[in-house]
Amino acid sequence: MYSEKVMDHFSNPRNVGEIENADGVGQVGNSKCGDIMKMYIKVENDVIVDVKFKTFGCGAAIATSSMATELVKGKTLDEALALTNKAVMEALDGLPPVKVHCSVLAEEAIAAAVQNYYDTHGIDKQVAKSHCDSCNCEH
Amino acid sequence: MIYFDNAATTAVKKEVLEKMLPYFSENYGNASSIYTIGRTSAAAIAKAREQVANAIGCKSNEVYFTGCGSEADNWAIKGVAFANKSKGKHIITTAIEHHAVLHTCQYLEKHGFEVTYLPVDEYGKVSPEAVKNAIREDTILITVMFANNEIGTIEPIAEIGEIAKEHKILFHTDAVQAIGAVEIDVNKLGIDLLSLSGHKFGGPKGVGALYIKSGVRIDNFMHGGAQEKTKRAGTENLAGIVGLGTAIEIACSNISEKAAKIAKIRDYIIKNISENIPYSRLNGHPTDRLCGNVNFSFEFIEGEGMLLHLDLNGIAASSGSACTSGSLDPSHVLLAIGLPHGIAHGSLRISVGDTNTMEEADKLLEILPSIIQKLRDMSPLYEEIKNK
To answer: Distance between alpha carbon A14 and the CA centroid of its chain, in Å?
Structure first.
């Protein structure tokens, strides 16, 4: 049911953990749905120099968190915000249909962390919200 | 591989397979045919019917073979409902039934029937008193599972059977998980209809049976030929029926001895997890539970991750988490016993069978704590608890 890439990122997730004194922290999802993602970013000159995550969720939630962190590390904030759930899924060689919402969550977690960075650094910018249309949960 | 998912399915026992094999090839006759190999098939089916009857204490002419346990549940509930609708339209069941019962009841609700879904207590038990209080003038059927497939709780079947009898209401039980684990005598327990499934006790998949007490009014399930006394048409699954008969005979001999051996492994696993893994909770009744059922919730993590890590370590188990069910909601059983969503998502079912060993339990118990710790270490919910 899962691709080898998903299993790889699930069993050896990249960038797990917390960043002390992170520049931005974003948390999305809820335990009712069974998925919560928390992203920490360190920003220097508009570039995400470090990123870590913590995730409560299924194998796909862990794998998409891991892949999303890999995809935004070293990228500018604008590049990171351009990351779509589709790109995360493609990088993982696809997800089963019921797990698509996990990739949306990953996209949202990155956006939430960037928004938090803007908010805490006096930058007057609003990140456009994406919507998960693959399920009727609250994210 | 270490297989701890015996509630999902079991391997066909070697001696069962041996009995089945000739009925695929040399003894392939249609049981409805008059010539010798047809009669051989008819005799084999008759023997299997006898074996099922002996296992549950009924007469062989009260046993009807079906395609699976779900079919038996569908037939029992729909068949009784439609055949008795002139008497009434009310059915009593519980909130923790298998989907084969729940979804059938929901279907009947769309067709004018009314269903009471009784709640259960924190251990998953339905109270006989609640069954009694739910009875109405127009109640035609009570259907309560013998034992729950997820949390293993054994329901007060004898008491409910007595209440049903007193009120002259038909009583069906889904005994799919209980066969071979609990002694069952349908007459002593006041059961009018009972569903069972071959692959849960060492028989093949694709065959089940429904016990229908003589005199019970029930619609035919499949229309066609005269098989199963015209009630369930279709050429019999000959090898499957032979396999089910052989398997139930083996499964229901020396139940207490076998169940005690399995329960020893179950209790060892429960004790070890309870003592060694913090923030864990045993789901289901502490004593009135299936001999092979272990079901725990582990806080701050989600069940699927546990299953995948166990699988990477060669251990097969199951979970009541949403992610294994294809929906976002966790198991209806875990919600019915009052678990919050977050905790229900982190459940693990280990179902022990008669081929499991203590060494296998040790291997599981050696690996499980590190898997749970690994998942907790990456959980934002665990981080919150640690920082408190």
So the answer is: 12
